[in-house]
Amino acid sequence: MAYFSVIVPVYNRRDEVRDLLASLAAQTMKDFEVIIVEDGSTDPCGDIVEEYSHRLTASYYFKQNEGRSIARNYGIERATGEYFIFFDSDCVIPDNYFATLDAALKAHYVPCFGGPDAAHSSFTDVQKAINFSMTAFLTTGGIRGGKVQMEKFVPRSFNMGYSRRVWETVGGFREMFSEDIDMSTRIRKAGFDISLIREAFVYHKRRVDLQKFSRQTYVFGMSRITLKLLYPDSMKLVHTLPAVFVIGVVTLVLLALLWHWWAILPLAAYVLALWITALRSTRSLKIASLAIVTSFIQLGSYGVGFIKAFVWKILLGHGRNIEEEIAIRKGK
């Protein structure tokens, strides 16, 4: 019986699953099983999983579409390992990932961990720019596994894991946006330690379409208000910064148009700082320039979603019964 159970929810992601399984098959340590849960896809990947059956201990399940959290819970219930690892289908795993993770847990065991993500050299320039905007201190405050953080580390479902005992105590994921933050909060409130294992990173493709990326970050902003309603003490200063950014940009632009062009200088200074930081990080003029676009999309979309949800759910009081709005399919 393998010690680690890798659980991956999938919805119409054949090519991504192929890349993920190829990277898992190349692992230097083999003490893990892989569970792929197809969440009602119209373009299933069972044949791809079968291709890797001679190189991996892999199981494939097809179920009706109910959402990624329900799919993860479905996989957990069928896992045989003592420690569950969660990846997104758009991840590629470095070949020493499990060897690194195993060594870290043996040196200092923790019942729940998360790891950072990075951009692989094969990713497109847009993917690398998006990766920068989602991990840089100037855009997220380092809350997604960076070296400097403005908030206590919270594992994300593209690269996190917890023990069977945690699951038996806390239960599964809830079907909601930002379900990984909700899960991590419940784990911490139950008294379990959570750690960041920096060396256990994954390559995360993220969105390759800027419109989809905008929609994704917009939902992140809205879900942050849901999390505040569920956990009133969870809101930190860093979470409000995108909303401040949106208000600040609008204010500076209006001042520049109606008063004096100098008003735009703080925004120009921020853009320059972004570009220099991205250039140092990516060593590419093109990616650094794209990173300005993706950073503004990320901050703007998140900020607008945050403001809209704040007004609707808090100021207008439509979030009073937030627990009833969340479909708790598996566990609390």
Explain this structure to me?
Residues 327-332 have low confidence and may be disordered. This protein is globular. Helix 5 (125-135) crosses helix 12 (285-315) and helix 11 (265-282) crosses helix 12 (285-315). With 332 residues, it is of the alpha/beta class. The protein is 51% helix and 13% strand. It has a seven-stranded mixed beta sheet. Strands 5-10-7 form a three-stranded mixed beta sheet.
What percent of the residues sit in helical stretches (DSSP H or I)?
Answer: 40-55%
Total number of β-strand segments?
10
pLDDT < 50 stretches? 327-332
Global structural class: alpha/beta
Summarize the structure.
The protein has helices at 14-25, 46-51, 68-78, 97-107, 125-135, 137-140, 164-170, 179-189, 210-230, 237-258, 265-282, 285-315, 322-325, and strands spanning 4-10, 32-39, 58-63, 83-87, 91-92, 112-114, 117-118, 159-163, 194-196, 202-204.
Topology of this protein?
Layout: E1 4-10, H1 14-25, E2 32-39, H2 46-51, E3 58-63, H3 68-78, E4 83-87, E5 91-92, H4 97-107, E6 112-114, E7 117-118, H5 125-135, H6 137-140, E8 159-163, H7 164-170, H8 179-189, E9 194-196, E10 202-204, H9 210-230, H10 237-258, H11 265-282, H12 285-315, H13 322-325
Parallel strand pairs: 1-2, 1-4, 2-3, 6-9, 7-10
Antiparallel strand pairs: 4-8, 5-10, 6-8
Helix pairs in contact: 5-12, 9-12, 10-12, 11-12
